[in-house]
């Protein structure tokens, strides 16, 4: 039982840094933009967050700075694909490599340094070391239902989804597809960078190059896994966080299971989801996903 | 104006002629030089060489992927390098290729198994000294459960875990060691999760073999459990309170020795493996919570190890299944360390 509790506790903690970028990408893809740059945005967030926390001795300023930089960086991406009508996948990959390089450059002086981390608060009733999280973990799990509400229960959410299905029709209905896409990109950039900052300031308390270790890509896989639904994204992120923690805990208990096999699991699940739902009636991918919108005359 | 430039050029030329270095030494590393781990150890040895032989000129590049190593090494040779340290295991074959093209340049590679006329290797006998960290851990543990976090399940990682466990068992026969692999040399988030899993298992002293155990140290501090440091003593500052002791890779004097051999033309290719006694390793200072009695016992073991009276891998040693791996009357030496594909009796975890 104790073992089970510590597994759940760990799964929640390691779900958070992946839930942030997944939620952002869900919203962004709902407006028709595929962003492969999440990994770069997360790294930027991790590096900027850590550096600013180191310099100002305030972890919250670090999170804020990360959010700001993520927002700006992803607006560059949105500018490319919305305004300059660039290919989304190419622009996303460019953003990723930019993020990898830029984060290394910014974080260089802070490798092997100590910066203030985020404070931790126990979930109600928890006395032990378990279920003690920094506020970003609570924020991640609060954001999911909020974004679900925004997407599926508000007029603005309808606009977001309409742009993703058919920008031309949305335009005819009086919505500006470009404005909506810029908004979604700003939100997604902010969230991805905060997810990265959570890794450096919330979980590890350090910065090292490439420390996201592919989590940005797992997030993209989880968007498909969750079928563009913020609530199902929680399940996906928990599954991933749970797999990481379970594997290490099983090892600590002498159950041999390959860490490489479990690293592969989120992608296998995504492939399975595509296999099962790929061509079915319940296929919910936004109809204009990845398409360039050339405007409506 | 023209005359001023001319004067400057003459000055520069004169300076260059005067400041001709006695030897140009190059090093590439795969990570960053401040990682409080493996890469920092290599870099500090290079800086120690520079400090002791000021006439040496240093060329240095960090974050060099193995795929680009050849180009960077070639570039260093273009700049006059005559001694190169491709200081990462993954550089073995790229560096060997470059070595074949430049028979007049000496290469020293850490931990590899390849030799050539101008290509030698060096490393510390870490496993033997890691035994001492186990002695300290065995004396300090209250729960009789030790944890060990490895990056990859390689022979050297398994050897260090075995040494840690055997050292602890030597002073505390009730010890069980829990072994966990993260699957990467550097994935800080996973290292935190692995350390937490061990702590929840009841482990109260954590050992490790990672590129840089910074996050592990911080996790131990948060939970109030002890840890031992490796491969750089610099990790102590990340949690001084719960630091027991550690093991640093210290090659400064050895680099000086090699540079002098290269200058004198007496350098010979060899697999050089030395330990604490030769300064290839340094046992760290003890943390504030370590009692005098524990310090005394650990230092006693260190003396015995240095005098050769202590053989950490002397048989009989059984593996997890109870099979005798090192028979009675024999002992594994430095050249056997690559042979570990098993974990000793009393270790929980998988060697694969």
Architecture overview:
The complex is a heterodimer of chains A (about 300) and B (about 350). Chain A has helices spanning about 1-30, 40-55, 60-85, 90-105, 135-155, 155-165, 165-170, 175-205, 215-225, 230-250, 260-275; strands spanning about 120, 130-135. Chain A is an all-alpha fold and about 300 residues long. A two-stranded antiparallel ribbon of chain A has the order 1-2. Chain B contains 10 helices and 15 strands. Chain B folds into 2 domains: about 20-125, 3-Layer(aba) Sandwich (Rossmann fold), CATH 3.40.50; about 125-250 and about 280-350, Response regulator (Rossmann fold), CATH 3.40.50.2300. The mean pLDDT of chain B is about 90. Chain B is globular. In chain B, the strands form 3 sheets. In chain B, strands 12-10-9-8-6-7-15 form a 7-stranded mixed β-sheet, sandwiched between helices. Chain B has a 6-stranded parallel β-sheet with strand order 2-1-3-4-5-11, with helices on both faces. A two-stranded antiparallel ribbon of chain B has the order 13-14. The interface of A and B includes residues 248 and 257 of A.
């Amino acid at each position: 039982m104790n073992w089970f509790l510590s597994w759940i506790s760990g799964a929640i903690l390691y779900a958070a840094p992946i839930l942030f970028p997944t939620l952002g990408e869900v919203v962004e893809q709902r407006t028709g933009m595929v962003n492969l740059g999440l990994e770069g945005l997360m790294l930027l967030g991790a590096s900027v967050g850590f550096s600013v926390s180191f310099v100002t001795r305030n972890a919250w300023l670090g999170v804020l700075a990360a959010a700001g930089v993520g927002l700006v960086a992803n607006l560059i991406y949105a500018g490319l694909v919305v305004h300059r009508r660039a290919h989304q996948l190419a622009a996303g990959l460019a953003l990723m490599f930019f993020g990898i390089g830029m984060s290394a450059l910014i974080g260089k002086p802070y490798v092997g340094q100590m910066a203030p981390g985020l404070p931790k608060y126990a979930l109600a009733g928890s006395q032990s070391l378990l279920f003690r999280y920094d506020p970003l973990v609570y924020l991640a799990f609060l954001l999911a239902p909020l974004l679900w509400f925004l997407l599926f229960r508000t007029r603005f959410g309808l606009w977001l989804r309409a742009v993703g299905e058919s920008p031309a029709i949305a335009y005819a209905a009086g919505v500006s597809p470009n404005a909506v896409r810029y908004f979604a990109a700003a939100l997604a950039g902010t969230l991805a960078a905060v997810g990265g900052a959570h890794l450096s300031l919330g979980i590890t308390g350090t910065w090292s190059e490439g420390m996201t270790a592919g989590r940005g890509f797992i997030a993209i896989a989880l968007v498909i896994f969750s079928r563009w639904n913020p609530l199902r994204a929680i399940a996906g992120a928990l599954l991933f966080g749970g797999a990481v923690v379970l594997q290490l805990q099983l090892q600590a208990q002498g159950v041999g299971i390959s860490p490489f096999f479990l690293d592969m699991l989120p992608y296998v699940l995504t492939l399975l989801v595509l296999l099962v739902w790929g061509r079915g009636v319940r296929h919910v991918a936004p109809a204009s996903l990845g398409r360039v919108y050339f405007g409506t005359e | 104006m023209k005359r001023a430039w001319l004067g400057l050029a003459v000055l520069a030329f004169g300076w260059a002629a005067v400041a001709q270095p006695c030897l140009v030494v190059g090093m590439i590393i795969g990570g960053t030089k401040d990682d409080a781990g493996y890469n920092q150890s290599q870099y500090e040895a290079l800086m120690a060489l520079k400090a002791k032989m000021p006439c040496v000129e240093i060329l240095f590049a960090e974050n060099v992927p193995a795929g680009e190593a050849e180009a960077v090494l070639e570039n260093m040779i273009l700049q006059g390098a005559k001694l190169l340290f491709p200081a990462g295991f993954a550089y073995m074959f790229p560096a060997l290729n470059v070595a074949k093209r430049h028979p007049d340049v000496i290469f020293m590679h850490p931990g590899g198994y390849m030799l050539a006329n101008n290509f030698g290797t060096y490393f510390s006998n870490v496993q033997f000294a890691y035994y001492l960290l186990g002695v300290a851990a065995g004396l300090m543990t209250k729960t009789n459960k030790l944890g060990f976090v490895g990056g990859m399940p390689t022979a050297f990682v398994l050897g260090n875990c075995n040494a840690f466990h055997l050292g602890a068992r030597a002073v505390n026969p009730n010890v069980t060691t829990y072994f966990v692999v993260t699957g990467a040399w550097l994935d800080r988030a996973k290292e935190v999760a692995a350390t937490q899993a061990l702590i929840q298992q009841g482990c109260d002293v954590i050992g490790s073999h990672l590129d840089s155990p910074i996050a592990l140290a911080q996790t131990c501090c948060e939970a109030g459990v002890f840890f031992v440091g490796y491969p750089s003593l610099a990790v102590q500052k990340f949690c001084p309170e719960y630091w027991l002791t550690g093991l640093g890779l210290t090659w400064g004097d050895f680099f000086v020795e090699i540079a002098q051999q290269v200058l004198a033309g007496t350098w010979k290719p060899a697999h050089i493996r030395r330990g604490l006694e030769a300064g290839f390793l340094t046992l760290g200072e003890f943390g504030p919570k370590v009692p005098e009695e524990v310090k005394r016992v650990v230092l006693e073991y260190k003396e015995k190890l240095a005098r050769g009276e202590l053989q950490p891998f002397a048989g009989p040693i059984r593996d997890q299944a109870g099979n005798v791996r090192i028979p009675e009357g024999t002992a594994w030496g430095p050249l056997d360390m690559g042979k570990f594909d098993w974990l000793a009796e009393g270790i929980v975890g998988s060697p694969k």
